[in-house]
Amino acid sequence: MKKIFKILGGLLALVAVAILGFVVWVQARGIPTYDPPKMAVQPVAITPARVLQGEKIVTAMCADCHLDRSTNALTGKFMNDLPPEFGKIYAANITQDKTHGIGSWTDAELVGLFRTGIGRDGRFRMVMPNFVHMSDEDVNSVIAFLRSNNALVKAQPIPSHEQEPSFLGKMLVNTVMKPTPVPAKPVLDPDTTDGVAYGHYLVVGRYKCYECHSKDFKTNNALVPEKSEGYLAGGTRLLTPTGQEILSRNITCDEETGIGDWTEAQFVQAVRFGQGPNGPLKLPMPKFTLMSPQEARAIYAYLHTVPKLKNATAEDGGGTVATR
Predict the structure, then answer these.
(1) Cα angle vertex 74, ends 100, 153, to 5°?
(2) What is the CATH number of domain 195-316?
(3) Which segments within the chain are labelled E, that is strand?
(4) CATH code of the domain occupying 48-173
(5) Contact 163, 90 (CB under 8 A)
(6) Tens digit of pLDDT for each residue in 149-190?
(7) Dihedral angle at the C-alpha atoms of 284, 250, 177, 166, nearest 10 degrees?
(8) Domain boundaries in the chain?
(9) I want to staple 76 with a disulfide (CB 3.0 to 4.6 A). Which of 17, 91, 233, 276 is the partner?
(10) What is the 8-class DSSP label of residue 80?
């Protein structure tokens, strides 16, 4: 018996040492760095059509984090809608300033960042969406807009704030939150005449609805979004600008707890203008005002093909208000 206790004690000691070593390693490493991705891309031709499309995507996907209302430009800011368990996370200056923004970045470096989450300095951007499923043309449109004369991206010499991740944040980016690989082949535009296929692309590729509308940021699957835990059934913890905790809502078509009783017109109105059938949608849900009605209808069509999951929100008789 004494021998058994001795063995168990030794094992517990080893486990304790391993845990302590892991903690020290995570704290010392912080946000990891990687070899910058090597991208073979042609210089992006800046056309009016691309700039217009890029403005729509940037307004929907980048401005919510990077737009500082005090500068009226994409100079970055504190991301106050993330749960504090991640630490203090700041969006970077992505204006055309060559020192503090992305003015000196090449198109290849920008594509590498969008695809993998790794910047040209090798640092992993811990909460920036990885647009691994976005079409090549949409990525080019984003770059065209960032190179345009729009006031949002005009050079502003404002330094980006360094990240202040918590231990949990550091642990996550050293374990489950990893860079995504460079696509092995071109990512083509979707067939916009096929509503379901187009909607699927918009949900996982262009607008990445699943990131907030699945169960948790920590269990999302960037490579196969459909394998994210609680795919599109809501539950991700978010904060309003005033610090109130809310949960993302269920957007599967479950009739009791999701949007199964919403009409197409109600869904389009909610997504584009923030007015749901039960009242206005609350922050941090953005209003996709530049999204076309065709896009919103395609998302609605795709959501009707997604497996229904029950996950009640406050609006449906559940607990915490879920509005995103």
Answers:
(1) 80
(2) 1.10.760
(3) 87-88, 164-165, 237-239, 245-247, 275-276, 279-280
(4) 1.10.760
(5) yes
(6) 999 999 999 999 999 988 888 888 888 788 999 999 999 999
(7) 50
(8) 48-173, 195-316
(9) 91
(10) T
